[in-house]
Amino acid sequence: MANQRGSGTAYYIGTSLSEDAMYSLVAAIIEETQLGSIESPDGVEVSLHSGEARLYEIVMNHNNLPLSYNRYELQPYSCTFYEIVDGGKWIELSTSYATRGTLYRHFRIFLLDSM
């Protein structure tokens, strides 16, 4: 079910889907809405956000092992915010990670404008 609110659309799926069925559904929504998608390894979630002439990339490693993704070295269960600057260079702004159920944060400068 798709519900429109303002300029956005929310999709509600009222059932449990297999991985293949969920992939097919998401692929259809991406095609229908002409959204872009970001390929990432299993267990790695990536999102891009922009505003005020800035681009941010948020990378979450849901795996219990460190791994590499693009130019980043990801720690287990980490969430890292990057600002993309000057033709693809990046600045790490903030990293959070979980250890034995406790969330720890290592903050650098992180100012987020409204997006």
UniProtKB/TrEMBL annotation:
Specify the protein name.
Uncharacterized protein
